[in-house]
Each structure stands twice: as structure tokens, then as C-alpha cells.
Amino acid sequence: MKGYGMIEVGKPGWIETDRPTCGPLDAIVRPTIVAPCSSDTHMMHGGSGPYENRILGHEAVGVVDEVGALVTKFKPGDEVVIPCVTPDWLEPGVQYGKTFSHDNGAFGSFKFLGAKDGVFAEFFHVNQADANLVLMPEDVKPEAALMTVDMVSTGFYGAEMAEIGIGDTVVVIGIGPVGLCAVAGARVLGAGRIIAIGTRPNCVKVAKEYGATDIVSYKDGDIVEQILAMTGGKGADRVIIAGGGQEVFGQAVAMTREMGNIANVNFYDVSHVLSMPAYLWGLGMADKNIRGGFCPGGAVRIGRLLEMIRYGRVDPMKLITHEFRGFEKMEDAFLLMDRKEPDLIKPIVYIEG
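Above: the chain's sequence. Below: its structure in C-alpha cell form.
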């Protein structure tokens, strides 16, 4: 079987490996549309550890090719949506919290990014299929469904972690595809003013369409000073970190009012050190709540997000800026994502041309 991934840190390429084996609760899926993610390129550069000969990719829709003997909800030929986070529902970690993202330790449920080969292959493995696959709705475009498996889910989770209330002033730092979905999620949850921080014209346009009322550019000066000036010195009620380097952590705390919430869905590098002056946190007593979380897992989550598309609450098709056709074009799409060209938001690859 052929797939695309990282031969070693800093060296992407094509990989030959065995077709995955289907366990009794599992499924083997043939991808029909995939999307590279900055998490994939981040891993290739060593940001998640020194993996070798690992097929990458965690965003796919596809067709079931094989199911295990104990699978009851799916059969070969079914068109399915595959969450990027597929928990092992028998592990104790799923009994803590609400995200099911850490079934057996940190990131344990994110099996496509490190624990096993990903979706940029002729076939890929899905554990516990009955709980981790979703039938493709007839009235949702497959391309839109593809955007739910990570981008929409992660962005919305940023808004959920921030606990946005009716009329809140919300800042979203970083308006790549996840940040754009955080903007959309903030609007759905009832935010009043939504301030998006970013500069790319394509992203600014979509941010406004998703509900951003204001755009802030770091090119116009210190972003903390700009936010404080815009809010009369008070700061934002809620801040979502969806992009940037290690410096954004302290900036987010600084621009958040007392009793406000900071929610992080940004993927930092293993070399980063997150820090802030104590006074920004009210010497630890300002009741500024800081949360960092990972994309929730499982079929129910994706099913609910597909309902958001079906009833017009969000249009993830706006995220797709580049289309490729053919299995071999996964390489071109991956390298495009790695370069992060100015007009890029999200590329997709139609596997069958």
C-alpha cells in the first residue's frame, strides 16, 4: 500500500507499507477527499516528536472498504465522515472531562497524528468504527463535511471553552482555518463584538463573512494596546488563541479583563516556553481563567456539526481555496500547506481525480 507522509523529520515523501489490519470492532476506509493540515506539516518538521516512515493526514471522508465482525452500524460501500479524533472508548481517559481527546494520556485519542498511519494512503484504519464513523448525510456536500472533522470542530471548541455569553466581546487571535471557525463559533454562541486578529486578505474576508465585526493587524502596532484601546481599557470578555507563536499566550492574558476567559486551541512547538508577567494575571488573583484544549472526538460530535451545516449555521465551504485532483496530488497539497502561501486557507485533494 502507498501513502504520503514523513520519511524522517524534515523529509516528506511517499511511503510503501502494509495495508492496515481490521480488528473486530474496526473498519478500513478508502479516502475519497482529504485535506492537509498545518498539524501535519508541524509534525513533519519535528514539532510532535522524531517519527520516521509515518503516513500523515487526519482529515478525510471516504468509503468503507472492510468492517470487523462486531461492527453493526456500517458496511462496505458506505460513504462516511471520519473524525480526526477517534477515541478508544474502553480506555479510562474517556471518563474524565467532556472532550474524550485523551483516552490513554495526552492526545491519546488523536491516533492519526503519531500513534498510527494517517489518511494520506490508499486505505486507512479506524478503530471502534461504530463510535467513530458518521454516515455521510445526503444533503451535505462531502467537501463541507470534510471541514467538520478538524477545522470546524477545533474552532468551535475554542468558542465553547471560552464559555461565550450573550453580547460578549470576543477576540480571536489568528484567523487561519481554525481561527475562522472560532469566529463562526463565537457568533453562533451569541457574541456581540467579535475582533479577529490577522492580516491575510482571504482570511480577513471570510472572518467578516463569519461574523467578525472588527479586524486588528499586528502591522498596525502592538495587538494588546489596540484591543485595550478598542475596549476602553477594560479588555475583552473572552479571548481565543488560534494561532501564533509562544508570545501570544502572554498577549492573550494581557488583553483579557478580570473574570474573563482565555481559551487556547493553538498547537505550540515542543521548544516553546509559555510565560507571562504575574501582574497580567492579577498576581494570580484576577479570576482570569486559562484553558487549553484539544479537538473533541467521536461520532456524536461530528454528527452535531453536520447538523450546523445542514441548517445553515455555518458554511465551511468558504474555507476551501485550493483543489487538487488525483492521489498523487497529495504531495502538492501538502507542500502548499507547508509553504502557507498568502492566498491559502485550506487545500483539499479529490483522490480519484
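The chain has a mean pLDDT of 95.
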